[in-house]
Amino acid sequence: ACPEGEDAATKCSKPKFNEYQGYSPDIKYACGPCAGGTLGKTCEECTGGTGEACNKMAEKLIADFNCYSYEYNGETSKFAAKTKKATCKRKQGNPIVCNKPSSSATATTYTNENGCGPCKDDTKGKGCEECNKDSCRTPIKCVQGANGGAAATACAADTATKCSQPNFVEYTGFSAGNYACGVCAGDTKDKTCKECDGNTDDGCNKPIETDTDFKCFSFEFNKDKKKFYEKAETTCKRKKGTAIKCNKPKASATEATYTNKDGCGPCAGETKDSGCEECSAESCNKIPIKCVQGTDGKADATDCTELTATKCSKPKFIEHTGFSKGNYACGVCAGDTKDKTCEECDGNTDAGCNTPVKTGADFKCYTYKYNTTSKTYSQADTTCKRLSTSDILCNMPFAKNITEEYTNTDGCGACTGETKKKEQCKECNTALCNKLDMSSAHHVHIAALVLPLQALVYFLL
Question: Whose C-alpha in 108, 212, 307, 385 is 20 to 30 A from the C-alpha of 95?
C-alpha cells in the first residue's frame, strides 16, 4: 500500500529498463507518476490498484556480459579502448551485442556512450561496428613474423592488447625471438623481449632503426702469462645515431678488472680506468705490437703508435761489414730495402722482435787493392765486424801473379764466388793472417820502402 497521505495516488512508477544498459540508476520504485519529464525516458508508469503492485520488476534478465568502451583522443583523432570494461544487461532471449568504433571513426560518426548494445541511431557502417560475443572488439595490429620485415596486420585474437618484439641490446643486436601479438613469453620481458601497447591503426612493435655495423677486437685471458690477448674481430650492432665505441683491457688488467665479454661498446660496470679503456673508432681497440725504436737499438721495445702495424724492422747486419744504415722501427722496411739493408720480423704484443743481433769482438784483416797501372797491390788493415757466433776469417790474393782474378773488395771474410776453388783467392782464420809473402815484394807496393831505396841508388851513382 502507498504511504499514508498518498491514498489519492492512482499511478505507480518504476525505473525504466534500457536494453543492454540496465535499469535507470536515478529512478526509484514509487507511488505516484514519473517525476518531471522522465516518463518514457528513464521512468515508467502503471495504473495502480488495491491488489498486487503494478510496478514490480517484471523483466526476466539473463547473465550479464561485458563490452569494451572507448574514448576519443583529440590530439591523435583516434578512439582507444578504456581499461575498464562496461557491464551490459539484457532481457531473456536477447543476444549479446557490443559496439565499437571503426578504424575511420570520428567524434561525430561514433556516438555510443559505452560499448554495450548495438550502434546508436544510424551510425552503423559509418563510424560504428557491431560484434556478438563477450568483450569483442576490433583487434589491434602488430608486426608479426621472424624478422619484422612484414607490415603490421590484425591479431587473430581480439583480446590482445600488447604487441611484442625481440629486444635490441646496444652494441650486441637483436635478441632471438619473433615479432608477435600479445605479451612477452615467460619472464623474458625487458630481458630478451620488449612489449608495447597495441592499437588498431598500426603495429607498435616495428623493428628499431639501426645504424651501420662496425668491428672491434675481442680478447681472452691467458692464465699462464697472466695477460689478455686479441681474438678475432667482433661485428658490433648499434641503434641509429649511436656512436661507435670499442673497449679493451689495459696493460695491467686482470680477469677481475676487465670483465667485458667482447670488445663492442663501453667498459662494463665500473671497470673503466681500472682495467678497461675505451676508444671511438672502428677496430681502435687493437693491442699494438711492441718494437724496438730508435737509431741504435738500445732502448726497450715500446708500443707502436700505428695500430695496423704487424711488422718490426731494423738495420740488416752484413757479416764482416757490420750494420747497414737505418733505424729500428715499427712497420715494414722502406722501399726495396728489405733483405738488402733492412730486415723485418713479425711483431707481437709481448716484446720487440727487432732487437739488435749479438755481435762478437771486432778483428782486423789486410785489404789489397790492385793498381793496373803500376801492376802492384796496395795494402791497408781493415776493421772487420762479425756476429757472436761467427769465426775470424780473412782473405787475400792466392799468389803474386793473381791480379784482376782476385775480386774481393776487402780482406774481411770469405773469398767471393768460386775464386777460392779456382785458386785465385785464399782464406785464413786469425787476425791479420792474410799478409802477402814479402818474396813477392816487387808485386807489393809499400811506399815507405820504395822511395828511400830509390834515393840511395841515385846517391851512389
Answer: 108
